[in-house]
Specification:
The complex is a heterodimer. Chain A is mostly helical. Chain A has helices at residues 7-11, 14-51, 67-74, 76-109, 114-126, 129-140, 146-153, 168-194, 197-205, 210-238, 242-247, 259-269, 273-302; strands at 53-54, 62-63. Chain A contains 13 helices and two strands, in the order H-H-E-E-H-H-H-H-H-H-H-H-H-H-H. In chain A, helix 3 packs across helix 13 (273-302), helix 8 crosses helix 10 and helix 12 packs antiparallel against helix 13. The longest helix of chain A is centred in the first third of the chain and has 38 residues, at 14-51. In chain B, strand 1 (52-58), helix 3 and strand 2 (80-86) form a beta-alpha-beta unit. In chain B, helix 10 packs across helix 11 (249-265) and helix 18 (377-383) packs across helix 19. At the A-B interface, helix 12 of A face helix 4, helix 5, helix 12 and helix 20 of B.
């Protein structure tokens, strides 16, 4: 915060200097404050206000306090969406961290055509979600999908994939993992390249090699990096929407209706804006709490 | 003599013509002076030359055809069109976002009045086009509102306000592969109950073919299933019309038949299927029968050979009930209440629903909402080229006469009823509930919407 003062200012009393400093500082911060208020605080406060009202299309909004939140707590559809969100989150995050770590290590070891291999590896997460959803339909549809046709050529009976209430979440998690594990891999690769070589050399001297080196040296050192990847993926996975919207519409039944999908239906299909806002804010709170837990974990690992 | 006559006659007639011309010119000047203001207010297609209007349409053969013809409209009126075509749900989401904020960014949009019309009208999203219709300066003299199907105009009217113009007629139809039926020596179902029997025989005859396909996605199910419920003698309301009626024995029979066909004779994973998959399977010849939208006719006919081996008609009536109640309605083209370009928007509505445009759209498989086009020479000539076209015209004509769009329990929250009824069907197909349980649970949920 040091300032370079002009000779005139140097000659002025301290009080004046402080005042000038304050004025310039406040002007600098105003655009950022205005941006935050307009783009974040206002919509959030407005959503919170709507969530306290019985607001539906074609009716006059009516203040109902926390009734929408209480309705959510007793709505079996929302409770199912809450469960679906966490199951999908758990399965997909575990798969993506495991496969992403493996991919990061593999990419780190690639010596030939390194840039080309890395570019190919990160292609999936550069694809638009709509394309991925359409690919999932084309590949996994039990009747017209190519995967069932392929496994049928070796005598395996058709699997239901996205059409099975029991397997739909795993199918969706697999598709999402295909898309986002490379993203985790890229973060892990960055983490690996920043690790000190001396630690690995010391481990090698002590005879800690192979799998043991990975478990006892690499993984603990990668802890903060993996937590960063987990935070980034958590935010996306808890708000899971596009893939289920395109590929399953939340079905079959409500087997893949996530909280975000539920809120979308309530808001945009059923025009129950108050109820949808309450669901969305609940989801936001869930995301925020999860991120805070990971942030705390990361801090404890960093020290 | 003759020569003189020939010489003098033109001279006289020239003088007479000159006198007549001066009288006519004078009369013309007088007439124009007297009728000057009226002529200035006459309809002019070029009145809004240079303006641009924004259209938000759904992915529908009508929309795609209009996009292809947009330049014709611009040439005729000078008005440019900015067209956005979205799938139904994203289109509704877009309308929700913009119109709820009273945005003037949307001028014209399509909506399904039987589904969302009442709610959109309550929200004040539709401009009343009746005043513009009555204004001779705004409405072309050849535009005749009485030419539209009366039922379709009724669907567009809420509390005396005309909220749009119908752009088509549609409803689900029974399509069947004649060649598969012939190969398996199966008679075309005459009654609703015969469909199950035909499916059984086709499955026994050729297990590689799916005997049946239909929509299985939750909110898409009620549209093709409704006629099964009606033709079985049931309905979506109680007999007195005050409560949900899916749990009535006749309604359960319709639900059972629809779900049995999907479960036992439908393609694998049918609960995730909507019209794209059904059309694909039928078009590829992998399905023997379906109950799919009349709108998809043109898409199905694009597959080689389908114009020759498909038959189409209304869903057969119930043997036990004797009821044949087709589903039928039309999409409506409306002007946003918040549009600042209502004049050019109304000009577009007139052009897009004109007999000339509707006659062209017939070729794209859009059933016209104007009676004159339906009964017109162009339609007859088109239909006479293939038997299946004739069958389609007859079936759609029947839909426009007798079709109903009322297949929800008694509530304004129609989209939610679709979701609940669709889920009941899915639960049966997935074996999670019996038809009776699913229907009665659905009724309990539907009752909460009232």
């Amino acid at each position: 915060m040091s300032t370079i003062a002009s000779p005139a200012v140097t000659a002025a009393p301290d009080r004046m200097r402080r005042g000038q400093h304050k004025i310039s500082f406040s002007w600098m911060v105003w655009p950022a404050v205005a941006f935050v208020v307009l783009m974040m605080v206002f919509p959030l406060v407005y959503a919170a206000w709507i969530s306290l009202q019985d607001a539906s299309l074609g009716t006059e909004p009516r203040f109902v306090g926390f009734e929408n939140y209480l309705n959510l707590a007793s709505d079996p559809e929302f409770l199912n969406a809450f469960r679906v969100t966490w199951v999908l989150y758990g399965v997909a995050l575990a798969l993506q961290l495991a496969l992403g770590t493996w991919l990061g290590i593999v990419l780190n070891g690639v010596k030939v055509a390194r840039h080309l291999v890395r570019t190919i590896a990160i292609t999936p997460f550069m694809m638009p979600p709509v394309v991925v959803g359409m690919m999932a339909i084309v590949l996994l549809d039990p009747s017209v999908g190519i995967v069932n046709w392929l496994i049928g050529t070796v005598g395996v009976p058709p699997l239901l994939w996205l059409a099975s209430p029991h397997w739909v979440l795993l199918s969706v998690a697999l598709v999402d993992t295909w898309q986002w594990a490379p993203f985790v891999g890229l973060i892990v690769l960055g983490g690996l390249q920043s690790l000190p070589a001396s630690v690995f050399e010391a481990a090698e001297v002590d005879g800690v090699i192979g799998w043991r080196r990975f478990v006892y040296v690499t993984l603990p050192l990668l802890g903060p990096t993996l937590l960063t990847a987990a935070v980034l993926r958590s935010v996306d996975l808890l708000r899971f929407f596009d893939l289920v919207f395109i590929a399953t519409r939340g079905g079959p039944g409500n087997a893949s209706t996530t909280m975000n999908m539920y809120a979308y239906q309530q808001g945009f299909e059923f025009s129950r804006f108050g109820h949808a806002s309450a669901a969305m804010l609940t989801l936001s709170a869930v995301v925020l709490c999860t991120v805070m837990v990971f942030a705390r974990l990361r801090r404890s690992l960093s020290y | 003599m003759t020569m003189v006559q020939r010489a003098t006659a033109p001279g006289r007639s020239r003088k007479r013509a000159g006198r007549r011309g001066r009288i006519l010119a004078l009369a013309g000047v007088l007439a124009s002076l007297l009728a000057g203001p009226a002529a200035a207010e006459g309809f002019d297609w070029k009145r809004y030359d240079g303006q641009t209007i924004n259209l938000v349409l759904t992915n529908h053969p009508w929309s795609n055809a209009i996009r292809d013809m947009a330049q014709q409209f611009t040439d005729k009126t000078g008005i440019k069109l900015r067209i956005e075509i979205l799938n139904e749900d994203p289109q509704r989401a877009r309308l929700n976002t913009l119109l709820q904020a009273k945005s003037a960014d949307i001028d014209v949009y399509v909506s399904l009045k039987i589904r969302e019309g009442a709610v959109y009208n309550k929200a004040g999203w539709y401009a009343d086009i009746a005043p513009m219709l009555k204004d001779p300066a705004q409405t072309a003299p050849e535009f005749r509102i009485e030419d539209f199907g009366a039922g379709l105009i009724r669907n567009e009217t809420f509390g005396g306000r005309l909220t749009g113009l119908p752009i088509n007629v549609e409803g689900p139809l029974f399509y069947w592969h004649k060649d598969i039926f012939a190969k398996c020596n199966v008679a075309v179902p005459e009654y609703l109950e015969d469909i199950l029997d035909a499916a059984r025989k086709i499955k026994a005859c050729d297990p590689a073919i799916n005997a049946w396909a239909a929509r299985g996605v939750r909110n898409a199910v009620p549209y093709p299933m409704a006629a099964f419920v009606f033709n079985s003698g049931g309905g979506f309301k109680s007999v007195d019309g005050t409560k949900p009626g899916l749990c009535r024995p006749e309604s359960v029979a319709g639900l059972t038949l629809y779900t049995d066909l999907l479960k036992d004779y439908g393609p694998v994973g049918a609960t995730n299927h909507s019209f794209p998959q059904v059309v694909e399977l039928l078009g590829q010849g992998k399905v023997a029968m379906t109950h799919e939208s009349s709108n998809e006719f043109s898409n199905i006919m694009k597959y080689p050979g389908r114009e020759d081996d498909l038959g189409v008609k209304l869903l057969p009536k119930g043997r036990a009930s004797g009821v044949s109640q087709p589903i039928g309605f039309g999409w409506g083209l409306s002007i946003s209440e918040y549009s600042r370009r209502k004049g050019p928007s109304w000009t577009f509505l007139q052009w897009a629903t004109s007999p000339e445009v509707q006659a062209v759209l017939v070729d794209r498989g859009v059933a016209p909402s104007r009676n004159s086009v339906f009964a017109g020479e162009g339609m007859r000539a088109w239909a006479s080229q293939k038997p299946v076209r004739r069958e389609w015209v007859d079936a759609v004509s029947e839909i426009s006469r007798r079709g109903t769009g009322d297949y929800a329990s008694p509530t304004d929250r129609v989209p939610e009823t679709r979701e609940i009824i669709g889920r009941a069907a899915q639960e049966v197909v997935l074996g999670q509930k019996t038809p009776q349980q699913a229907a009665c649970d659905a009724d309990a949920a539907l009752l909460k919407l009232q």
